Amino acid sequence: MDLLLWGVLPYVSIALLVAGTLWRARFDQFGWTTHSSQVHESRLLRIGSPLFHFGMLFVVVGHVVGLLIPMGWTDAVGLDDHAYHLLAVSTGAVAGVAAAAGVGILVYRRFTVPAVRRATLRGDHVMYACLLGAMLLGLTATVLNSTGQTGGYNYREGVSVWFRSLFALRPDYHLMAGAPLAFRLHVLFGFALFALVPYSRLVHMFSAPLKYLVRPYVVYRRRDPEQLANRPQRRGWERVS
């Protein structure tokens, strides 16, 4: 079971992520959208969406640093283990709470606003469940680890080493077998979320609007009321001279 969960399942999840993204980019470009429901309700969206997106941005950065940078590297720059954990817990907790609060507001909005509820797809229920599950389990693991409820477990010597071993195609799945339950469930929800991205509205995360930086300006001209009043009236089928 440990081999299947921590040695096989991660590669299955990544394969679904890559294959699904390529398939949608090739055959479902019109479906590559957030399915925005802003037209139905905007007040809660203006609060929940920035909280979720900015919170998730810092959560992802924190996970990249915590999982991919070995302890030896941070020690080499003078950041000891205590200072690292203090920085990681403080920033990670704020980002995690912001992201969880944001997605909580979005879920509340989706189920309480009738028009938004009618626009909800079946896959959205699974997506929100995975998002909330991963966030709440991550916060739970952080709290338990910070308060000493995990027996002094250091994820940088366990989960992080296992995660880096996946890139070497030699997964050290025994390290995950000894991780606390909250960490293991958090990882499982995370990989389930990876596999779900191409088949949900989360696929829009790969569509950074970079063209907005180089596209021509859109010029808006104001209509002069006097010119409109003096302009001759034409029927819709008459050609403009």
Kindly describe this structure.
This protein is mostly helical and 241 residues long. The protein is 65% helix and 0% strand. The radius of gyration is 24 Å and the shape is elongated. The mean pLDDT is 85.
Question: How are the SSEs ordered, and which strands pair?
Answer:
Blueprint (H helix, E strand, L loop, with lengths): L1 H26 L15 H26 L2 H6 L4 H32 L1 H5 L3 H25 L12 H9 L5 H5 L3 H16 L28 H6 L11
Outline:
The protein contains ten helices and no strands.
Features:
elongated, 241 residues, mainly alpha, 10 helices
Shape field: elongated
Radius of gyration: 24 Å
Main sheet properties:
none
Structural category: mainly alpha
Number of strand segments:
0
How many separate helices? 10
How far apart are the first and last residues' alpha carbons, in Å? 77 Å
Instruction: Determine the fraction of residues in helical runs and give it as a percent range.
Output: 55-70%
In round numbers, the mean pLDDT is 85
> Beta-strand percentage?
under 5%
Low-confidence stretches: none
- Write down the secondary-structure element order: HHHHHHHHHH
